[in-house]
Each structure stands twice: as C-alpha cells, then as structure tokens.
Design a protein that fits this description.
The chain is mainly alpha-helical. The protein has two helices and no strands. It has helices spanning 6-21, 27-56.
C-alpha cells in the first residue's frame, strides 16, 4: 500500500475545487469530482486522526 501524502491530497482538493467552480465543467464531471473529493477528504481526516493520536501518545 502506498503511503498517504497529505500535502498532495490537499493540492488535489484545491484543483478539484477550481474545476468544480469553472462554468465550463459539465454536471457529470462535477459529480465525479465530488465523489473523488469525498474520498480524499476521508483519507485526510483519517491521516489527521492518526497523527493526533500519535502525538498525544508521546
């Protein structure tokens, strides 16, 4: 399993936001982008939870 890169995920979320806000983006693509962002947000939350637990254990 590839290690999660939080910074890359946030950068990808920013790209997705820009594409969703672009009036030229079609509804089908917006739906796909929203699903992709939901997955990335979930992984970011999981990563941050893990980091918090790790630092609290120190």
């Amino acid at each position: 399993m590839k290690e999660f890169d939080y910074n890359k995920a946030v950068a990808e979320l920013e790209k997705i936001a820009a594409r969703v806000e672009d009036p030229a983006t079609g509804l089908d693509e917006i739906e796909r982008l929203i699903k992709q962002s939901d997955e990335l947000i979930g992984r970011c939350r999981e990563y941050l939870r893990t980091v918090r637990q790790t630092t609290e254990a120190l």
